[in-house]
Prior knowledge:
Blueprint: H1 9-56, H2 59-65, H3 70-85, E1 89-93, H4 117-120, E2 126-132, E3 135-146, E4 149-159, H5 160-168, H6 171-200, H7 205-221, E5 225-230, E6 235-238, H8 240-246, H9 264-271, E7 276-282, E8 287-297, E9 300-310, H10 312-350, H11 354-378, H12 382-397, E10 401-404, H13 417-436, E11 443-451, E12 454-461, H14 496-506, E13 510-515, E14 518-524
Parallel strand pairs: 10-11
Antiparallel strand pairs: 1-4, 2-3, 3-4, 5-6, 5-9, 7-8, 8-9, 11-12, 12-14, 13-14
Helix pairs in contact: 1-5, 1-6, 2-3, 10-11, 10-12, 10-13, 11-12, 12-13, 13-14
Amino acid sequence: MGRAHGWSLARQLFALQAAIVGIVLTGLAVATYWQLQETERAATAEEMLGIAHTLAASPEVLAALDDPDPALALQPLAERVRLDTGTDFVVVMTPQGIRYSHPTPAEIGRTFVGTIGPAAAGETEFTETYTGTLGPSVRAVVPVLDGGRVVALVSVGRSITAVAQDLQRQVPLVLGAAAVALLLAAAGSWLVSRWLRRSTHDLGPAELSRMYEYYDAVLHAVREGLLLLDREGRVQLVNDEARRLLALPGEVHGRRVDEIGLPAVLGDALADGGPRDDEIHLTADRIVVVSQGAARWAGSHLGTVVTLRDHTELRELVSELQTVRGFADSLHAQAHEAANQLHTVISLIELGRAEEALEYATAELTVSQHLTDAVVDGIAVPELAALVVGKAAAAGERGVELSVDEGTRVPAGVADPRDLVTIVGNLLDNAVDAAQDAPAPRWVRFGAGIADGAVELRVRDSGPGVPAEDVERAFERGFSTKVSSAGHDGLGRGLGLALVRRAAQRHGGSVRLAGPAEFTVRLPLVRA
């Protein structure tokens, strides 16, 4: 996918973070300045209050107030205190606000400009910011008490300009702290941007959105099932076809693949993360071909990719093809056998032994007709009847006698004919293979009957049977007592009995090993 014009997501995020950090730090700096300003004014007011209290309690002030002209003694005292404390004015006045002292001598004797009511009433903690003769100032006004009586007032103040100058000395500290915070935030944003750039491959938001939409549409549209697993075997993505093939319940994202309800063999196979190439596995009602490989990016192992293909229909077609091939082999065998019998009869007639020829032909016809009659009379499913006859002929060519028990009965409608062909065909094939490898006499018996509301299908043979230690594994995918010369037949060995069990379970039935060499399948009539 080509790069579109515009900034990448990482660059946009960095610019957005930078703008947000700048706005926040600017607001923080302004708020800090205002806070410092208020704090400085409060501290100045507290300082003025302390100086005023100290002066008001001075014995020199009380002594000067008893003089005929208090201003002569109070003006030098107030100026000395003003210079010593660095304040802008120290005013001693009468309770009515007539000044005894002032930094500007011309103001002595005039009325104080400010609020004196609280102090004249005896309040000792009054402060205010007020514009007086010397301009705006932070001031405190306290009473001078003599035996509890207010005899004078003292006001001490500092101009707002002086307070602002004190505040200005703290501005570089605030700006320095803001600059350090800005640098740290910028460095953090740059690191986040760099990490995001690597994670998003320097793509923009529109590209990421479009890529997600396209990839999601493609993943859910492909005909193959797809599972993405992380390094711990947890499901990260599952498309619609995989859900259908595996019959997955609800939400499985984030769960381990062997804990989402898959058959144990399939779940374990996917969880180990090893490479797999076209392995055959069975689900509840499907045959799936599983391939699995490692997912890597830039040399890093991300997890595994699992692809699933539906082999159910192909297997059914193969089974049907094998059945048709069996029929063809049966016809070929019967034709070959008929030709041999005909040659034998003709040769006996040519030799003048017509009676022996008639006896031979009658005996062969009786044997063949007995099997045909038993199948036609007892098996009401044409496909199954044809299968048994065909398997009997094919087994005869391999030196194995396949016979049908007396009283065999399979009613119509007990199960889908294809499932019956799958069940009986696989059991008969396994039985013929086992009997062929056993000592003579080599035989296979097929029987069926109705008992306890179910149809029982029985197949037994003269072979050695399933070993006792393998009884529990007999119906698992991959179990086989046969030795494959090819190693792999394209559809997988050990599927026969597993398919038999799946087909029986689809109709509410079951299959069991009744003896070392006898399998019994029960299919309920009620469900049918």
